[in-house]
C-alpha cells in the first residue's frame, strides 16, 4: 500500500464513517429520549436517497404514497383515540400537525416532480417528504407504548424496520437507485484528489452537527430534549412534556436520516433493503461510545468507517466479521471496568 | 382490483380442483421474493406463457415461491412430491435453494431440473439435472477471450455469497488450466455502499483484466468504481449480469463491459444455421407479447428451455406410462437422459445417464455492452 | 393427574400421531414449528424469565449445524455421536460470549449478540473448509439403533420428542430453587441480597438457551441434510425473537404458540396476499411488520395469556404437610455484640454522607436507627448491606469484617434485609417469593432441578417458606400472586422471605413507610413477637411514633453523624435530638 492508495482509502473510510456518524447521532438521540433502539435509522437514509433518485429522474417517488397513507392512518387513529377518551383538547392542533406538513409535501411533490425540479428544490422535497414519516411513526406506534419495557420497544422498532423496508420494496422495486452527482469530479489539492462529493458530505455533516450542537446547547427545546435524555422522570417533574420530546426526537432523527440519504444517494447505488447494515454500523459506533455521548458516537462511527475500509482492502471476505468483531474488545473493556468498580469495595 | 381478486379465485380453484388423472403435473419452485427475487421473477412470468397441453395431454404448472430460503424450498419440494404428486420438479432458481431440494427429489424418485447452476453429487445424478450452463463453461469463455487478447492475468471481485463462490472457484480452476494468473480475489455485499477499497486492492495487484463475480444492477458498483479509479483493461462480468438493470445502473461507465451469456440474448445476430436461433425468436415473440417489448432475458429463456425439455421428454414418456405414476416419473427421467438433442434458447441440450449438465460451447456467446444494449462481441 | 397435565399429555399424543392422519405438508410445517419452538423455549427462559435477550440464537443453531456437518460429512461420524460434541461446542461459545456481556446493561447484550450473529454469518461463508456460501451437502440422516430417520414422519416424531423433553425439563427447572432464582434475575439487587449469584446464573441461562438452539440446529441439519449460512443469519434470529414476542415471553407455552402462529402468518401472507394484490413478493414484509406492531400494541404480553384463560390452569405450587428441616445457623448468646460499626465513613466526592458513625447491635434486641430526612440513614443502610462500600471504618459481624463485602456475601453471612420500595416478583406466588429467601439454604443445581432429582430438598424449602408465612400471618395467601397483596402485606411478605433465610440479623429499611395506621400496628406487633422468639432486628425508620413504642434501643443520626444513642426514653429527652430531629421537623 502506498501513500496514494492510503489517501484514497482514508477518504473512502471517512465518507462512510461520516454517514454512519450521522445515523449514530439519530440512533443515540432517539435512544436517550425514548429508550427505543432506533433500528430503522438506515431505512430513513434509504428512503431519502431513493426519493431523491426518483425525483431527479423527473418522476413522482413512491414516498408520496407512503407519507400520504401514514398521515391518513395517523389522523384516523388519533381521532379514534380522542373519541374513545372523550378528550378533544389538543385534537385540532394534533391533526393540523399530522395533516398539514404531510399534505403540503405530498402536493408540492406531485406538482413539482414531473417538471424536473432543480436540485435544491428536489432536496427540499426529499426532506419535506421523509421528515414527517419520523413524527408520524412516533405518534402512531411508539407514543402509545411509552410505558412498555425497553425490550418490547425494541421489538416494535424491528417490526417498524420490516414495515419500512417492505414499503420501500413496493414503492421502489427490487432494483437499485443512484442519483446523479451534485458536483461531478475531483478537486486536485496537490498530494491527492478529493472528490467534491466527499467535500459536500464533510461540509454538510459538520454543519448539521454544529446545528444540532447549537440546538441542544442554546435553545429551550434543545435543552428540554437534553434534560429528558438525562433524566426522564426529573424532566417530567420540571414540567417538560416528555411526549413532545419523543416526537421531536423522532422528527429530528428522520431529518438526519433524510439528509444522510441525500448525501449518500449520488455516491453509491442503494437498494430498498440497504438500510439495515448501515444502521447496524451506526449502532456499533454508538455502543463504542457507551451509548451516552454524541461527539464520541460520531468518533466511534468514524472509526467503524475507517476499519471497514481497511478491512475491505486487506481482507474483504472477512470485513463484516471484522467490523462487528470491533465490539468484542470494547465489550471486554466495559466488562473489565464494571468488574473493577464492583470490586473496589474489597480493597 | 376486483378483477385480480376474481382471477385469484379462479387460480385458487384451479389449484385445488382434483386433478384429472391424465394431467401431467410439473412443480416449479422459484425465488420470486427475497434477495434473489430479481433473478426468480422472470421464471414465474415465463410460466404464464407455457403451453397448457403436451401432445394432447393437459399440463398443470404448479408455481410456488420459496422466498430465496432453502428451508422453504425444501418445504415446497416436499409439498410437490407428497401432496401434489408431481411428475417432475423444476427449480429452484438460486443455487442454494436448488441444492436444498435435491434430497427430496432423489428420495421421491422424481426428476428435478435445477434452474440455477448446482453441483450434482454422483449419488444424486440419477434424478437431478442441471439446466443453466454450469459456471465453469461460462467462465471458460472469459478465459478463452483472455487468451485471444493475449492477456496474462485477471483479478476477481465478487459477492460474498454462493454466486461469488461459484465464479471464484471456476475462475481459479479455468485460469490455472490456461496458465493465466489470478492476482487477487476480493469480496463485497450486494447492499454495500462502497467497494473503493476492494477496487484499489484489485488495481494494486496490476491485473490485465478483471472479472466481477456479481449479478444484476449490483454488478454496476465495481464496474463504475473500476472506471472511476482509472482501470483501463477489459472488465468481464458473469452471465447473471446480462440484465437491463445493469445497463441502467452502470450508465456510461458500463460501456464495454463483457459477459458470457446464452445465445438468446443476441438471437437476431446469430447465423441462420444456428438451431438456437428459431427457438429463441419464437420464445421472444411469445414472451414479449405478454410482458412487453424488451422484457425477454436469458433468465426467462431458462424457464422456456425447462419447458421445452419437459415437453420433449413427456412426449416420449406418454408412450409408455400414465402421468401421476412412478412408472411415468421414471420414463420421464429416462427420456430426459436419452441422449437426444433438444434445442433451447440458451443451449442445445443433450443429457445422458453420465452427463446431467448436457451443454457445450454452443451454450454461450460473449456479449459486450454497446450503446446501452448487449451486442455480440466480435 | 391435574387437568393441565392431562391436557398436555393429550397434546403430546396428538402431535405424535399427527403424521399418520395429516397430509404431508402439514407434517413438514409441524416439524418446523417444533424445531423453531425448541429455540424459542430457550428464548423464553432468556427473555421472559431472566430478562435478557439475544439476537444470536440462529447463530448458535448454526454452530451446532456446522459442527455436526463437519464431523459427519468430513470425519464420517454418526449423527448421534456428533450430537454431544456439537452441543458442547455451542455451549462453549455461549459461555465465552455470555461471560463477556452479561455483566453489562441489557443493551450491550442485545448489541453484542447482534454483532456475534452478523460476524458468524460471514465466518460461516468465508472460513476455509466450510464450503463457502453454498455450504456443506450430503449430511446423513439421523440413525438410532439401526432406524434411519429419512422418512419426514419419523423426523417429526423425533423433533417433537425433543420438544416434549425440553418443555418438561424447562418447566421442572422453573419450578425449583434455581428456577425461582432465575425468575428473580430481572431484579438484580433483590436477587443478590437473597444470595443469588446473578452473574453466574445469567451466563448459565444464556448457555441453556444456546444449548436448546444447538439441539434444534443439529436436528435441522440432519433433516434438511444441507448446511449453509443463510438460515443462521441475523434475520433468522430476529424471526425467533418475533416468535416468542408473538407467543408471549412470560410462559413456556408461548414458545410453541409463537412458533406455530408465526408459521401460520408467514404461510398465510405468502399464499393470500399475492391473490389479493395480483403479484407476490412485495407486500409480505410490510404486512408482517404491521401485524407484529398491532399485536405488540394491543397485547404487550403476546398471545399466550389469552390462550391460558381457556386452558386448564396449572396447579399452584403448594408446600408439603411436613418435611425435614433445612440447615440452620449457629447463634450467639443473647446480649452479646452481633454487629459492630466502628468509625464508618462514606464520602461522595466532597460530600460526607456518613461521618465516623459507631454503634453496635446485640443479639436478641430491636435497634432503631432514626434521623430526619437526609440524615444519612439510607447510606448507612447501604453500607451495612454491602450495596455501597464504606470509604473508611470497620463493620464486623460476630467479629468478622463485612465492610466492603458484596451484598451476596453479607446475605451469606446471615444478614437478611427488606427494601424501602418493596421488591418482590409480583407474578410469582406468595409461597414462591418466600421460598426465594431460603435460596442460600439449598444447593440443588440446574441439572438436578431439570431432572426432578431435587424434590426432597424442594419439599424442605417450601415447607420452611410456608412455616415463615404462617409465622407472619400470611399462610392463607400462599397460592396467590404476590402482586395481588396489599402494600402492608407485601412488606410482611418481604419479612417472611427474609426469615426464610434463617438470618442472624434482620435489617428492615423503613418498613412502616406508606403503611396505614392499622397496618403499622400489625407490623409492630409482628416485630415484637419475632423479638420475643429471639430474632435480632435493626430497623431504619423516620416514623418516630412507630419506633418509640417498639425498639429496645435507638441510634439517632443527623447530617451523617451519630448524635445520640440509648433507650427510647433517654433519647426522647435528649436536647440535641429534640433540636435536630423534632425541632428541625417542626420548624
Automatic annotation (TrEMBL), chain A:
<dbReference type="InterPro" id="IPR001851">
    <property type="entry name" value="ABC_transp_permease"/>
</dbReference>
<comment type="similarity">
    <text>Belongs to the binding-protein-dependent transport system permease family. LivHM subfamily.</text>
</comment>
<feature type="transmembrane region" description="Helical">
    <location>
        <begin position="245"/>
        <end position="264"/>
    </location>
</feature>
<keyword id="KW-0472">Membrane</keyword>
<keyword id="KW-0813">Transport</keyword>
<dbReference type="InterPro" id="IPR052157">
    <property type="entry name" value="BCAA_transport_permease"/>
</dbReference>
<dbReference type="GO" id="GO:0022857">
    <property type="term" value="F:transmembrane transporter activity"/>
</dbReference>
<feature type="transmembrane region" description="Helical">
    <location>
        <begin position="17"/>
        <end position="34"/>
    </location>
</feature>
<feature type="transmembrane region" description="Helical">
    <location>
        <begin position="94"/>
        <end position="113"/>
    </location>
</feature>
<protein>
    <submittedName>
        <fullName>Branched-chain amino acid ABC transporter permease</fullName>
    </submittedName>
</protein>
<dbReference type="GO" id="GO:0005886">
    <property type="term" value="C:plasma membrane"/>
</dbReference>
<feature type="transmembrane region" description="Helical">
    <location>
        <begin position="119"/>
        <end position="141"/>
    </location>
</feature>
<keyword id="KW-1003">Cell membrane</keyword>
<keyword id="KW-0029">Amino-acid transport</keyword>
<feature type="transmembrane region" description="Helical">
    <location>
        <begin position="64"/>
        <end position="82"/>
    </location>
</feature>
TrEMBL record, chain B:
<dbReference type="Pfam" id="PF13458">
    <property type="entry name" value="Peripla_BP_6"/>
</dbReference>
<keyword id="KW-0029">Amino-acid transport</keyword>
<dbReference type="InterPro" id="IPR028081">
    <property type="entry name" value="Leu-bd"/>
</dbReference>
<protein>
    <submittedName>
        <fullName>ABC transporter substrate-binding protein</fullName>
    </submittedName>
</protein>
<feature type="domain" description="Leucine-binding protein">
    <location>
        <begin position="24"/>
        <end position="372"/>
    </location>
</feature>
<dbReference type="InterPro" id="IPR051010">
    <property type="entry name" value="BCAA_transport"/>
</dbReference>
<feature type="signal peptide">
    <location>
        <begin position="1"/>
        <end position="21"/>
    </location>
</feature>
<dbReference type="GO" id="GO:0006865">
    <property type="term" value="P:amino acid transport"/>
</dbReference>
<keyword id="KW-0813">Transport</keyword>
<comment type="similarity">
    <text>Belongs to the leucine-binding protein family.</text>
</comment>
<dbReference type="InterPro" id="IPR028082">
    <property type="entry name" value="Peripla_BP_I"/>
</dbReference>
<keyword id="KW-0732">Signal</keyword>
From TrEMBL, chain C:
<dbReference type="Pfam" id="PF00005">
    <property type="entry name" value="ABC_tran"/>
</dbReference>
<keyword id="KW-0472">Membrane</keyword>
<dbReference type="GO" id="GO:0005886">
    <property type="term" value="C:plasma membrane"/>
</dbReference>
<feature type="transmembrane region" description="Helical">
    <location>
        <begin position="203"/>
        <end position="221"/>
    </location>
</feature>
<feature type="transmembrane region" description="Helical">
    <location>
        <begin position="131"/>
        <end position="149"/>
    </location>
</feature>
<dbReference type="GO" id="GO:0005524">
    <property type="term" value="F:ATP binding"/>
</dbReference>
<dbReference type="GO" id="GO:0016887">
    <property type="term" value="F:ATP hydrolysis activity"/>
</dbReference>
<dbReference type="InterPro" id="IPR001851">
    <property type="entry name" value="ABC_transp_permease"/>
</dbReference>
<feature type="transmembrane region" description="Helical">
    <location>
        <begin position="45"/>
        <end position="73"/>
    </location>
</feature>
<dbReference type="InterPro" id="IPR032823">
    <property type="entry name" value="BCA_ABC_TP_C"/>
</dbReference>
<dbReference type="InterPro" id="IPR003439">
    <property type="entry name" value="ABC_transporter-like_ATP-bd"/>
</dbReference>
<dbReference type="Pfam" id="PF02653">
    <property type="entry name" value="BPD_transp_2"/>
</dbReference>
<dbReference type="InterPro" id="IPR027417">
    <property type="entry name" value="P-loop_NTPase"/>
</dbReference>
<dbReference type="GO" id="GO:0015658">
    <property type="term" value="F:branched-chain amino acid transmembrane transporter activity"/>
</dbReference>
<feature type="transmembrane region" description="Helical">
    <location>
        <begin position="155"/>
        <end position="174"/>
    </location>
</feature>
Amino acid at each position: 500500500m502506498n501513500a496514494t492508495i492510503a489517501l484514497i482509502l482514508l477518504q473512502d473510510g471517512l465518507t462512510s464513517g461520516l454517514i454512519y456518524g450521522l445515523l449514530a447521532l439519530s440512533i443515540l438521540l432517539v435512544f436517550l429520549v425514548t429508550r427505543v433502539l432506533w433500528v430503522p435509522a438506515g431505512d430513513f437514509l434509504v428512503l431519502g436517497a431513493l426519493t431523491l433518485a426518483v425525483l431527479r429522474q423527473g418522476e413522482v417517488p413512491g414516498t408520496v404514497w407512503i407519507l400520504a397513507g401514514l398521515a391518513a392512518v395517523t389522523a384516523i387513529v388519533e381521532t379514534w383515540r380522542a373519541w374513545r377518551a372523550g378528550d378533544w383538547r389538543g385534537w385540532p392542533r394534533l391533526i393540523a400537525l399530522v395533516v398539514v406538513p404531510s399534505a403540503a409535501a405530498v402536493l408540492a411533490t406531485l406538482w413539482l416532480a414531473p417538471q424536473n425540479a432543480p436540485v435544491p428544490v428536489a432536496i427540499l422535497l426529499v426532506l419535506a417528504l421523509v421528515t414527517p414519516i419520523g413524527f408520524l411513526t412516533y405518534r402512531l406506534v411508539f407514543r402509545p407504548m411509552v410505558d412498555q419495557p425497553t425490550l418490547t420497544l425494541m421489538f416494535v422498532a424491528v417490526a417498524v424496520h420490516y414495515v419500512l423496508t417492505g414499503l420501500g420494496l413496493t414503492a421502489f422495486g427490487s432494483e437499485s437507485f443512484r442519483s446523479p452527482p451534485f458536483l461531478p469530479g475531483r478537486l486536485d489539492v496537490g498530494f491527492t484528489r478529493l472528490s467534491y462529493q466527499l467535500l459536500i458530505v464533510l461540509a454538510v455533516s459538520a454543519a448539521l452537527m454544529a446545528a444540532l450542537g447549537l440546538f441542544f446547547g442554546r435553545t429551550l427545546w434543545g435543552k428540554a430534549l437534553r434534560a429528558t435524555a438525562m433524566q426522564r422522570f426529573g424532566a417530567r417533574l420540571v414540567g417538560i412534556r416528555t411526549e413532545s420530546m419523543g416526537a421531536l426526537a423522532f422528527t429530528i432523527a428522520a431529518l438526519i436520516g433524510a439528509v444522510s440519504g441525500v448525501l449518500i444517494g449520488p455516491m453509491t447505488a442503494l437498494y430498498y433493503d440497504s438500510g439495515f447494515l448501515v444502521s447496524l454500523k451506526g449502532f456499533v459506533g454508538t455502543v463504542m461510545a457507551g451509548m451516552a455521548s454524541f461527539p464520541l458516537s460520531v468518533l466511534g462511527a468514524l472509526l467503524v468507517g475507517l476499519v471497514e475500509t481497511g478491512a475491505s482492502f486487506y481482507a474483504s471476505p472477512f470485513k463484516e466479521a471484522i467490523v462487528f468483531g470491533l465490539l468484542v474488545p470494547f465489550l471486554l473493556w466495559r466488562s473489565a471496568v464494571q468488574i473493577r468498580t464492583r470490586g473496589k469495595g474489597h480493597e | 382490483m376486483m378483477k385480480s381478486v376474481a382471477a385469484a379465485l379462479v387460480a385458487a380453484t384451479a389449484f385445488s380442483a382434483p386433478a384429472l388423472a391424465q394431467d401431467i403435473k410439473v412443480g416449479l419452485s422459484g425465488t420470486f421474493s427475497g434477495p434473489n427475487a430479481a433473478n426468480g421473477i422472470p421464471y414465474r412470468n415465463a410460466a404464464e406463457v407455457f403451453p397448457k397441453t403436451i401432445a394432447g395431454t393437459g399440463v398443470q404448472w404448479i408455481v410456488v415461491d420459496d422466498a430465496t430460503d432453502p428451508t422453504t424450498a425444501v418445504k415446497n419440494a416436499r409439498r410437490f412430491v407428497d401432496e401434489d404428486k408431481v411428475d417432475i420438479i423444476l427449480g429452484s432458481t438460486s443455487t442454494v435453494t436448488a441444492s436444498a431440494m435435491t434430497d427430496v427429489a432423489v428420495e421421491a424418485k422424481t426428476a428435478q431440473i435445477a434452474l440455477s447452476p448446482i453441483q450434482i453429487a454422483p449419488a444424486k445424478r440419477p434424478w437431478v439435472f442441471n439446466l443453466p450452463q454450469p459456471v465453469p463453461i461460462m467462465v471458460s469463455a472469459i478465459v478463452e477471450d483472455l487468451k485471444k487478447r493475449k492477456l496474462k492475468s485477471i483479478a476477481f471481485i465478487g459477492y460474498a455469497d454462493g454466486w461469488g463462490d461459484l465464479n471464484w472457484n471456476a475462475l481459479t480452476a479455468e485460469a490455472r488450466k490456461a496458465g493465466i494468473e489470478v492476482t487477487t480475489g476480493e469480496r463485497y455485499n450486494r447492499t454495500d455502499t462502497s467497494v473503493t477499497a476492494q477496487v484499489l486492492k484489485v488495481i494494486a495487484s496490476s491485473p490485465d483484466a478483471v472479472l466481477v463475480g456479481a449479478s444484476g444492477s449490483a454488478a454496476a458498483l465495481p464496474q463504475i468504481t473500476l472506471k472511476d479509479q482509472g482501470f483501463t483493461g477489459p472488465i468481464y462480468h458473469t452471465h447473471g449480469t446480462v440484465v437491463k438493470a445493469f445497463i441502467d445502473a452502470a450508465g456510461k461507465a458500463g460501456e464495454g463491459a463483457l459477459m458470457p451469456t446464452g445465445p438468446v440474448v443476441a438471437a437476431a445476430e446469430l447465423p441462420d444455421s444456428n438451431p438456437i436461433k428459431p427457438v429463441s425468436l419464437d420464445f421472444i415473440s411469445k414472451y414479449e407479447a405478454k410482458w412487453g417489448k424488451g422484457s425477454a432475458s436469458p433468465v426467462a429463456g431458462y424457464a422456456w428451455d425447462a419447458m421445452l425439455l419437459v415437453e420433449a421428454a413427456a412426449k416420449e414418456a406418454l408412450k409408455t406410462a400414465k402421468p401421476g405414476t412412478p412408472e411415468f416419473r421414471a420414463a420421464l427421467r429416462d427420456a430426459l437422459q436419452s441422449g437426444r438433442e433438444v434445442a433451447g434458447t440458451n443451449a442445445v441440450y443433450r443429457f445422458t445417464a453420465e452427463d446431467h449438465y448436457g451443454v457445450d460451447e454452443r451454450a454461450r456467446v460473449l456479449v459486450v455492452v454497446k450503446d446501452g444494449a448487449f451486442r455480440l462481441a466480435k | 393427574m391435574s387437568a393441565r397435565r392431562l391436557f398436555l399429555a393429550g397434546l403430546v399424543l396428538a402431535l405424535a400421531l399427527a403424521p399418520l392422519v395429516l397430509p404431508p405438508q402439514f407434517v413438514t410445517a409441524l416439524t418446523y414449528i417444533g424445531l423453531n419452538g425448541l429455540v424459542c423455549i430457550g428464548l423464553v427462559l432468556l427473555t421472559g424469565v431472566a430478562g435478557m435477550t439475544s439476537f444470536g440464537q440462529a447463530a448458535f443453531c448454526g454452530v451446532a449445524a456446522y459442527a455436526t456437518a463437519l464431523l459427519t460429512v468430513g470425519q464420517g461420524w454418526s449423527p448421534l455421536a456428533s450430537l454431544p460434541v456439537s452441543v458442547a461446542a455451542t455451549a462453549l461459545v455461549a459461555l465465552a460470549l455470555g461471560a463477556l456481556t452479561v455483566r453489562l446493561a441489557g443493551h450491550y447484550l442485545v448489541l453484542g449478540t447482534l454483532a456475534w450473529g452478523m460476524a458468524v454469518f460471514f465466518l460461516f461463508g468465508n472460513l476455509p473448509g466450510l464450503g463457502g456460501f453454498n455450504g456443506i451437502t450430503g449430511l446423513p440422516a439421523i440413525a438410532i439403533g439401526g432406524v434411519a430417520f429419512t422418512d419426514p414422519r419419523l423426523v417429526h416424531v423425533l423433533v417433537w420428542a425433543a420438544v416434549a423433553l425440553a418443555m418438561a425439563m424447562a418447566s421442572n427447572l422453573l419450578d425449583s430453587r434455581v428456577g425461582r432464582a432465575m425468575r428473580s434475575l430481572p431484579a438484580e439487587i433483590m436477587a443478590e441480597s437473597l444470595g443469588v449469584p446473578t452473574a453466574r446464573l445469567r451466563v448459565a441461562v444464556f448457555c441453556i438457551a444456546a444449548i436448546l438452539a444447538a439441539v434444534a440446529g443439529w436436528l435441522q441439519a440432519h433433516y434438511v441434510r444441507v448446511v449453509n449460512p443463510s438460515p443462521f443469519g441475523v434475520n433468522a434470529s430476529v424471526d425467533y425473537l418475533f416468535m416468542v414476542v408473538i407467543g408471549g415471553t412470560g410462559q413456556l407455552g408461548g414458545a410453541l404458540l409463537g412458533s406455530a402462529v408465526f408459521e401460520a402468518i408467514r404461510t398465510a401472507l405468502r399464499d393470500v396476499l399475492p391473490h389479493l394484490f395480483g403479484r407476490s413478493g412485495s407486500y409480505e414484509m410490510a404486512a408482517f411488520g404491521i401485524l407484529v406492531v398491532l399485536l405488540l400494541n394491543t397485547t404487550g404480553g403476546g398471545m399466550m395469556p389469552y390462550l391460558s384463560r381457556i386452558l386448564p390452569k396449572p396447579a399452584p405450587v403448594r408446600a408439603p404437610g411436613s418435611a425435614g428441616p433445612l440447615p440452620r445457623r449457629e447463634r450467639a448468646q443473647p446480649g452479646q455484640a452481633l454487629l459492630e460499626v466502628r468509625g464508618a465513613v462514606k464520602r461522595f466526592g466532597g460530600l460526607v454522607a456518613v461521618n465516623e458513625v459507631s454503634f453496635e447491635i446485640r443479639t436478641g434486641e430491636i435497634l432503631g436507627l432514626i434521623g430526619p430526612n437526609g440524615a444519612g440513614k439510607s447510606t448507612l443502610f447501604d453500607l451495612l448491606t454491602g450495596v455501597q462500600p464504606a470509604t473508611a471504618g470497620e463493620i464486623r459481624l460476630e467479629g468478622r469484617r463485612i465492610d466492603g463485602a458484596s451484598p451476596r456475601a453479607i446475605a451469606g453471612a446471615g444478614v437478611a434485609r427488606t427494601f424501602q420500595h418493596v421488591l418482590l416478583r409480583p407474578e410469582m406466588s406468595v409461597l414462591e417469593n418466600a421460598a426465594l429467601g431460603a435460596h442460600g439454604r439449598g444447593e440443588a443445581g440446574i441439572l438436578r432441578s431439570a431432572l426432578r432429582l431435587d424434590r426432597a430438598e424442594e419439599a424442605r424449602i417450601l415447607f420452611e417458606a410456608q412455616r415463615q408465612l404462617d409465622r407472619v400471618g400470611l399462610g392463607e395467601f400462599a397460592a396467590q400472586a404476590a402482586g395481588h397483596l396489599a402494600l402492608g402485606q407485601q412488606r410482611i411478605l418481604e419479612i417472611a422471605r427474609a426469615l426464610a433465610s434463617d438470618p442472624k440479623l434482620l435489617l428492615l429499611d423503613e418498613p412502616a413507610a406508606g403503611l396505614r395506621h392499622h397496618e403499622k400496628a400489625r407490623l409492630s406487633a409482628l416485630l415484637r413477637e419475632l423479638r420475643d422468639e429471639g430474632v435480632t432486628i435493626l430497623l431504619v425508620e423516620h416514623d418516630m411514633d412507630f419506633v418509640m413504642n417498639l425498639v429496645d434501643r435507638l441510634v439517632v443520626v443527623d447530617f451523617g453523624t451519630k448524635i445520640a444513642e440509648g433507650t427510647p426514653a433517654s433519647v426522647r429527652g435528649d436536647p440535641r435530638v429534640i433540636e435536630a430531629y423534632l425541632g428541625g421537623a417542626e420548624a
